[in-house]
């Protein structure tokens, strides 16, 4: 069985106010062709389908058109989609009765029976190979919020309550999967979570489930899982030295600082109940990112403006494909007209300025004045909260307070 793992599409996202619909449409076209060319049997989307709890209509249209086209081109394709922390689980799951008839399984939140008890069997979906035989049982666990986790008893409070709660959810779900699994079938798990020692992209990823304090250990996932399809971290990576526990990474760079590493999906091959091979499939870059003078570098204004004027740009590109440009300038003193100078250097040229970063060099300024300027759009709610807290109190907020704030942010986003 060939399984394609992808995550973190963030349909509906904007980059400094510029919609990404063109890039997402091109990615989904590429993904459709890849499903065909690679004879994929199952597609797993591990969360953050959308960028927000209430996605715009064009983003919804992209998603549902993709599902319809994928099933039309590959009627036997199994599709499993789970919600991420950016998604509204209930909104994502709402059309499930209709989607199930198409062979598309969507899990927005943990299922519960009429008695109010967790019903892990409802997270299980068979994945078929090219002959129609069941090759794996997919244990489709979505993003787990603190409120989803079972409370620990007084005798179980030695460990981290959030981590232990996640462990118990996976243990129950995997046990249900083992009971349903037949000889020769694999266990495939999903998760949308922050794993211990994972490589973050700080400007575009929220610290979930309490952030670093509650990062999950890899042993949350049992050794007999053939493959664990993870979402949340945008940089593709294996976890804990286990090649079968893996973030696919996002298909697009979701912030300028993500431009420097490759974006991909993962094609995993499963046979006789185990992982026998995997391949990273590089996603083409549909809109270029130009960083002037270069990634991580700041230059004097004359050098930066000269480099900007020297950019080789394609006049034949449609506007939605014009490259994104970031300009990083180092100044000895404030230069109020700098933005106008940069705009003038790009005037009439096929490029879009998305960010102007300025760093003041030391000439008697305070540390705050010489630090690189950070735009509010670059900060996560947690960062703003911690900065405000440190203004009024000594040190950082207590981890319990921080976890409560993160739960409040999630509740507000879900109600938006």
TrEMBL record:
Membrane-spanning segments: none
Gene3D superfamilies membership: 3.60.21.10
Domain (Calcineurin-like phosphoesterase): residue spans on this chain: 1-235
UniProt superkingdom: Bacteria
Cross-referenced CDD domains: MPP_Mre11_N
An example Gene Ontology molecular-function term: exonuclease activity
Matches recorded under InterPro entries: Calcineurin-like_PHP, DNA_Repair-Maintenance_Comp, Metallo-depent_PP-like, Mre11_N, SbcD, SbcD_C
Classification via SUPFAM superfamilies: Metallo-dependent phosphatases
Signal peptide: none
Residue ranges of every copy of the Nuclease SbcCD subunit D C-terminal domain listed in the record: 285-391
Keywords of the record: DNA recombination, DNA replication, Endonuclease, Exonuclease, Hydrolase, Nuclease
Keyword check for Hydrolase: yes
A Pfam family assignment: SbcD_C
Function: SbcCD cleaves DNA hairpin structures. These structures can inhibit DNA replication and are intermediates in certain DNA recombination reactions. The complex acts as a 3'->5' double strand exonuclease that can open hairpins. It also has a 5' single-strand endonuclease activity.
UniProt record similarity statement: Belongs to the SbcD family.
PANTHER family in alphabetical order: COMPONENT OF ATP-DEPENDENT DSDNA EXONUCLEASE (PTHR30337), NUCLEASE SBCCD SUBUNIT D (PTHR30337:SF0)
Binding partners and assembly: Heterodimer of SbcC and SbcD.
Entries under NCBIfam families matching the protein: sbcd
Protein name as annotated: Nuclease SbcCD subunit D
Source organism (scientific name): Azospirillum rugosum
Species classification: Bacteria, Pseudomonadati, Pseudomonadota, Alphaproteobacteria, Rhodospirillales
């Amino acid at each position: 069985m060939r399984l394609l793992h992808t995550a973190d599409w963030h349909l509906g996202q904007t980059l400094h106010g510029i919609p990404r619909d063109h890039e997402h449409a091109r990615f989904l076209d590429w993904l459709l062709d890849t499903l065909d060319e690679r004879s994929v049997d199952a597609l797993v989307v591990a969360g953050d389908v959308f960028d927000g709890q209430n996605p715009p209509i064009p983003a919804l249209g992209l998603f549902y058109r993709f599902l319809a086209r994928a099933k039309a081109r590959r009627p036997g394709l199994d599709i499993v989609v789970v919600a991420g922390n950016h998604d509204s689980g209930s909104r994502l799951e709402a059309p499930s009765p209709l989607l199930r008839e198409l062979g598309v399984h969507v899990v927005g939140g943990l299922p519960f029976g009429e008695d109010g008890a967790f019903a892990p069997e409802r997270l299980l979906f068979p994945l078929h190979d090219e002959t129609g035989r069941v090759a794996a049982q997919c244990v489709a666990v979505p993003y787990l919020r603190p409120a989803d986790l079972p409370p620990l008893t007084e005798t179980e409070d030695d460990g981290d309550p959030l981590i232990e709660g996640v462990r118990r959810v996976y243990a129950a779900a995997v046990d249900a999967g083992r009971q349903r699994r037949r000889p020769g079938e694999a266990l495939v798990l999903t998760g949308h979570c922050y794993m211990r020692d994972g490589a973050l992209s700080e400007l575009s990823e929220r610290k979930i489930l309490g952030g670093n304090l509650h990062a999950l250990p890899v042993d949350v996932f049992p050794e007999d899982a053939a493959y664990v399809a993870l979402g949340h971290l945008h940089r593709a990576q294996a976890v804990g030295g286990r090649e079968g526990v893996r973030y696919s990474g996002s298909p697009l760079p979701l912030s300028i600082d993500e431009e420097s590493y490759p974006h991909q999906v993962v094609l995993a091959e499963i046979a006789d109940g185990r992982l026998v091979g995997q391949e990273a499939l590089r996603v083409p870059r549909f809109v270029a990112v130009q960083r002037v003078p270069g990634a991580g570098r700041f230059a004097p204004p004359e050098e930066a403006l000269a480099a900007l004027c020297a950019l080789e740009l394609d006049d034949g590109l449609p506007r939605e494909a014009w490259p994104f440009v970031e300009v990083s300038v180092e100044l000895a003193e404030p230069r109020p007209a700098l933005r106008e100078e940069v705009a003038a250097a790009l005037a009439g040229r096929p490029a879009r300025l998305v960010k102007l970063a300025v760093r003041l060099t030391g000439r008697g300024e305070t540390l705050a004045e010489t630090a690189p300027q950070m735009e509010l759009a670059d900060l996560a709610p947690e960062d703003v909260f911690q900065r405000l807290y440190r203004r009024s109190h000594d040190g950082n907020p207590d981890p319990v307070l921080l976890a409560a704030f993160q739960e409040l942010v999630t509740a507000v986003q879900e109600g938006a």
